[in-house]
Design a protein that fits this description.
The complex is a heterodimer of chains A (589) and B (82).
Chain A lengths: L1 H14 L12 E7 L7 H9 L5 E5 L5 H6 L4 H5 L3 E5 L2 H4 L9 H24 L4 E5 L20 H19 L2 E3 L1 H8 L1 H4 L2 H7 L8 H15 L6 E4 L10 H8 L7 H18 L3 E7 L2 H10 L12 E5 L3 H12 L6 E4 L3 H10 L15 H8 L9 H16 L9 H7 L2 E7 L5 H10 L12 H7 L5 E10 L2 E15 L2 E9 L8 H15 L4 E5 L12 H4 L3 E3 L8 E5 L10 E5 L1
Parallel strand pairs in A: 1-2, 1-3, 3-4, 4-5, 6-7, 6-9, 7-8, 10-17, 13-14
Antiparallel strand pairs in A: 10-11, 11-12, 12-13, 14-16, 15-16
Helix pairs in contact in A: 1-2, 2-11, 6-7, 12-14, 15-18
Chain B lengths: L2 H16 L20 H15 L5 H6 L3 H14 L1
Helix pairs in contact in B: 1-2, 1-4
The chains are: A alpha/beta (589), B mainly alpha (82).
């Protein structure tokens, strides 16, 4: 509340009522007409709209003067020339004069009178003032008189309000009026989040001042939807976003998805929410750091996948950075980056996308996937006002377009992003303490693994004191936290001058951050210390490690001639200098 | 919480809300002494105090607050009763 208020003050100081003129949207001249205090909501509305690049100037009517304002052609409102009117009537005003116990017929005609009055206002606002009309539904503030079966007491104010809201929905549909569903918000958050009777008595604020930022955001998203500025596409990460685990490492049977497992059901539920969104016109895309073959596997073969390949209009699986991938998705779908919402469980990916592409919406997903659907729904990214036939067909259309478009890569400013991460690579020889984790990584890592050599706990333990072995573990920390052990390298001294790299594996979580170069620098220094003059590495291809085929050449190793049918081998002369990325600090533990 | 602590935190809220970074509250101060302390800001002040101290004022209490000293004593009493 305070943050929004202060932001709004700054904003008003800077711009007053002058439209800055740079926004690609139509300025909104919004009249907020109510029957009690509404101006406490204005900072929220201005900021909520501004978040969506909408410039809003607000007209505040005098207390209870909205009838004259609307119908009198000489009124201040007419002179002000609004283009949008929000009717924000408080419930007490709407039900003024109700009488508990009166005959059903009297209640009925009371309701009719109220709705007729409102519809007249709508029509006048539309026809005489040429305005878009937004109607706030009544906040259910009345305590119940019967209880669970309140509807059986037709004259109860609580029951009346429910019926009034039902009617408003039908009428709004007929009259082309946009609703602000305050009754839904009260049901979702609890009435006390939205209404405090004490504040009503003190300041005639029906909407709680503390709820002002949320209220303003809701108005903002509806105003944006009226200009067709809602978001259109949900871009989904795969591993630990659509299923638990890493498909490339855990395999089809290892990922967590499906019935009989609470977490697996939660992921299914999120997929179902995405699918429901797709069915009503939101485009789905996938952006994953994966081999495409691995990424597609669950879509093609896992029987608990709710989302199918044909639900995804644009499928991007590669090892490039996600900001670049997302640019390419927008281009292929031929929509603006500001139409995208990016859902990823990994804070690193979220932050690079926020930094590189601030126009993409990147929700701070909760850790528990059970909470993903409600979180995304609450943010209102895809606010829509009507369903069209194209909506129902949209995913298919975009998929077709996307197939026609060729993907163009565009480099993003990676260097400065990586620098901003403040990475430190802590390394040591294998330790007893971390042995369990080391064994686990050696036996689990499939993708970034040059040889996929497995070691038992005993074999790892034997490496600890062997003077002819260089066995390194590396932990990466950055400003977002500690990623734990993410790299393991095991080398054997095979002759006086040579260290042979038997194992080099890394966690895919830290890919694209040039940790490989830093790891090589550590290895080279250790090898030199042991008196070696060269490093030899090999790539043993498996079904899953295609991504590291070029690992050694990328690090400056030269190919070693080998016999046909043998694994490619590479050599690095240790007399030459190793390039170390200057944005990764290296520390020995 | 002691009166001094409450006073300090309250001072921060006042400085923040009224955008008066130099403001030094004294127990005798009232709305008459601070131009920005109008009826609209008073509502916000009360809501913000309720939020920060996690207390709820009685409707009658809000009406009876005459000066900063009253407010501090009320907050201390409410916090102790929690």
């Amino acid at each position: 509340m305070m943050a929004t208020t202060k932001l709004d003050r700054q904003f008003m100081k800077l711009f007053k009522d002058e439209w800055p003129g740079q926004l690609q949207t139509t300025p909104v001249r919004l009249a907020v007409l109510g029957s009690s205090t509404v101006d406490h909501l204005f900072p929220g509305i201005r900021i909520g709209a501004l978040r969506r690049n909408l410039w809003v100037t607000i007209y505040k009517g005098d207390y209870g003067q909205y009838v004259q304002d609307i119908y009198d052609a000489g009124s201040a409102l007419h002179a002000w020339q609004p283009n949008t009117i929000l009717f924000a009537f408080d419930s007490r005003h709407l039900l003024g004069g109700y009488q508990v116990g009166e005959a059903a017929q009297a209640t009925e005609s009371r309701l009719n009178e109220t709705t007729e009055r409102i519809v007249h206002l709508w029509r006048a606002a539309r026809d005489k003032l040429g305005c878009q009309v937004i109607q706030q539904t009544a906040l259910p503030i009345y305590p119940r008189l019967f209880g669970e079966n309140e509807n059986r007491l037709a004259s109860s104010p609580a029951a009346l309000l429910d019926r009034l809201n039902e009617r408003l929905r039908v009428l709004a549909e007929k009259e082309g009026v946009t609703l602000l569903a305050m009754d839904h918000w009260a049901a979702q958050d609890g009435l006390s989040s939205w209404h405090d009777p004490a504040l009503w008595h003190r300041a005639k604020q029906e909407i709680h001042l503390a709820a002002m930022p949320m209220y303003g955001d809701i108005v903002g998203r509806v105003l944006a939807a009226l200009q067709g500025k809602s978001r259109k596409c949900l871009v989904l990460d795969l591993d630990n976003t659509l299923w638990g685990g890493v498909i490339g490492d855990d395999g089809l049977d290892g990922i967590v998805l499906g019935q009989g497992h609470a977490l697996g059901e939660a992921f299914c539920d999120f997929q179902r929410y995405a699918k429901d969104l797709a069915r009503r016109g939101v485009i789905l895309a996938v952006c994953s750091k994966n081999d495409e073959k691995n990424a597609l596997l669950p879509f093609e073969q896992h029987q608990d996948m709710v989302l199918k390949r044909e639900d995804i209009a644009c499928f991007s699986a590669s090892w490039g950075d996600k900001a670049t991938a997302i640019r390419s998705i927008a281009r292929q779908l031929n929509i603006g980056l500001d139409a995208l919402v990016f859902a990823d469980d990994n804070p690193f990916e979220r932050n690079i996308v926020r930094r590189e592409l601030p126009m993409v919406a990147v929700p701070e997903l909760p850790e528990d996937p059970a909470l993903f659907p409600a979180m995304i729904a609450r943010a209102g990214f895809f606010e829509s006002l009507a369903l069209t036939a194209e909506d129902m067909m949209r995913t298919r259309q975009y998929e077709d377009n996307s197939k026609r478009e060729a993907a163009r890569e565009q480099a993003t400013d990676m260097q400065s992003y990586l620098r901003s991460l403040e990475m430190t690579l802590h390394w040591s020889r294998f330790t007893q303490v971390d042995q369990a984790r080391v064994v686990q990584l050696i036996n689990k890592t499939n993708q970034f693994n040059l040889t996929t050599r497995r070691y038992s706990a005993n074999e790892v333990a034997n490496l600890l004191d062997d003077p002819a072995v260089v066995a390194l573990q590396m932990r990466l920390a950055d400003k977002f936290g500690d990623n734990g052990i993410i790299a393991i390298i095991i080398g054997y001294r095979t002759d006086e001058a040579t260290i042979d790299i038997d194992t080099w594996l890394m966690s895919c979580r830290v890919l694209g951050r040039q940790v490989e170069q830093a790891a090589l620098a550590i290895l080279a220094a250790e090898a030199r210390r042991m008196g070696a003059r060269r490093l030899v590495g090999r790539y043993r291809p498996t079904e899953k490690n295609g991504m590291v085929a070029e690992h050694y050449p990328r690090l400056g190793f030269a190919p070693l001639p080998g016999g046909a049918g043998t694994d490619p081998q590479f050599v690095l002369d240790l007399d030459a200098r190793c390039e170390v990325p200057n944005f990764i600090q290296i520390t020995e533990n | 919480m002691s009166e001094t602590e409450v006073m300090q935190q309250l001072n921060e809220i006042f400085r923040d809300l009224f955008e008066l970074p130099e403001l030094e509250l004294t127990p005798g101060m009232s709305a008459d002494d601070i131009d920005e302390w109008d009826s609209v800001n008073h509502v916000m002040l009360v809501v913000e105090i309720e939020r920060q101290f996690k207390i709820k004022f009685h409707t009658a209490e809000v009406e009876e607050m005459k000066n900063v000293g009253d407010l501090v004593r009320l907050i201390v009493a409410k916090c102790e009763a929690k």
